[in-house]
UniProtKB/TrEMBL annotation:
Transmembrane segments: 64-83, 90-109, 121-138
Record bears the keyword Transmembrane: yes
Organism: Baileyella intestinalis
Keyword Transmembrane helix: yes
Official protein name in the record: VanZ family protein
UniProt lineage: Bacteria, Bacillati, Bacillota, Clostridia, Peptostreptococcales
Keywords, ordered alphabetically: Membrane, Transmembrane, Transmembrane helix
Length: 148
């Protein structure tokens, strides 16, 4: 029963993480992405002594942030459905994450400076599929290890 409660807590935390980032005004979201770009740009300049046009990298940081958020969601939803549902837990995790991703994009319509961006969805999908596949692979390896 303890695993079930932990799985609920992890799922709630993952959902709250996504909500927190979704409800950020566009300016705050852009500033957070730019902070990461600046850190990496400074490291690059120290290592390579070069400057580059960082705008394409800024766009990638913004897009891959979706993958990181949804990787967490994929892991949390996998644990949740493994704890609560014995039939098709990974399929349920995929469906759940897809619904959350679409709701996330739709909710951005009402947040100042944000918009529904269809190009974010593939990065969401990539993140939650990697998270779900990670749990699947780790669980299989754990079962193999326990059988030795």
């Amino acid at each position: 029963m303890f695993k079930k409660y932990i799985s609920i807590l992890l799922l709630i935390l993952a959902i709250l993480l996504i909500i927190a980032f979704t409800l950020q005004p566009g300016s705050a979201s852009a500033a957070l992405a730019m902070h990461f770009v600046n850190v990496i740009a400074k490291m690059n300049n120290k290592l390579n002594h070069t400057t580059a046009d960082w705008y394409p990298f800024y766009i990638l940081v913004r897009k891959f942030a979706h993958s990181v958020e949804y990787l967490v969601m994929g892991v949390a939803s996998s644990f949740f459905f493994l704890a609560w549902e014995k039939k098709h837990p990974y399929l349920l995790a995929v469906v759940f994450c897809a619904v959350v991703s679409i709701c996330d994009q739709l909710s951005k319509i009402v947040v100042p400076g944000r918009e529904f961006d269809i190009t974010d969805i593939p990065f969401d999908v990539m993140g939650y599929l990697i998270g779900i596949l990670f749990v699947y692979a780790a669980r299989n390896e754990w079962h193999k290890f326990k059988q030795r």
